[in-house]
Amino acid sequence: MIGLKTRVQDFTIRLTLESGRTVEFDGPGDITSETTDAIVNAANSSLLGGGGVDGAIHRGGGPAILAECRKIVSRIGSLPAGQAVITTGGNLAAMHVLHTVGPIYRGGDHGEAATLASCYRECIRLADEHALQSLSFPAISTGAYGYPVSEAAPIAISSTLDALLSASHVARVRFVLFDIATLRAYARVMEKPKNLDFNSSYRIEKKSS
Ligand code: AR6
Hints:
Elements: E1 13-17, E2 22-26, E3 38-43, H1 52-61, H2 63-76, E4 84-88, E5 96-101, H3 112-129, E6 134-137, H4 149-165, E7 172-176, H5 180-191, E8 202-206
Parallel strand pairs: 2-7, 3-5, 3-6, 6-7
Antiparallel strand pairs: 1-2, 1-8, 4-5
The chain binds ligand AR6.
């Protein structure tokens, strides 16, 4: 396991804000291998596990994550869509897991965009509250919950950039995208970043390979 924590993580595209904070887009990749302070789980309201990213995180992190989720459930009942909670990362390289529940896509006119944006904002706010400096996101809601990635990607990026502007500790956010199609959808947004709902200055680098 030595070396895991010091592994240099790669990026395909990197956006740097004036403040020096960075947003990296990388893939195809498995979020359970990330060495950021926290990784984000696309959970469901029961917090008791599932398939996709959720299954991979619980398998990789072991029973300590589920034990903490059960304690949270006994306190709050269930986690509403758009909110986030924090647990240990268990056996994962990341110290923490931020569990958030994305919206189930029902055509796009049921408040899905606002709920999805809230997931990204709440995760960054919670990470910041815990003085974490880095976190990695999957493409929340774009698997079992059916959100078209071409619609979800600009929301994920805009809400993340917005939340970063008011963060005190979080300085690095990674989007770890599981397959080529998802990575391409994010890359397409970054080809025309002026279309993003975001007005502060930034610079963009692309890996040359
Ligand atoms: N690393 C990064 N991304 C991944 C990984 C991984 N290891 N595995 C899948 N993805 P999903 P949702 C991608 O279905 O749509 C669960 O059962 C995947 O390709 O994991 O928010 C929960 O318990 C897709 O692009 O999450 C809920 O019931 C993205 O992650 C429900 O699914 C999200 O796919 C949540 O559905």
